[in-house]
Amino acid sequence: MYGQIPAETLAELLLYLNERESFASLKSLGTVSRQSLSVAIEALAQELKAQSQAQAEVPDFREWKELAAPYREILAKLSPREAQLLLKGLGN
Q: pLDDT, tens digit, for every residue of 16-45?
């Protein structure tokens, strides 16, 4: 989530803006071309989609009864991505 916006939704909004917005103010800045910005926005949107998919694949470990309560408490303090990386590193 970014603020109250899910990563998948934000990715779609970025792609929509990229297709329809001219970003005319880029000319006055003179530092970034429209084409460079377009490539960057597309890459960012793809990264957000991948992140969203990875988070969707993270199981809700708080419901895992085979984990002792202290371990569930520790995992609950991590972001879903951090918990996934930790569990993957431990071979789960």
A: 999 999 999 988 888 899 999 999 999 999
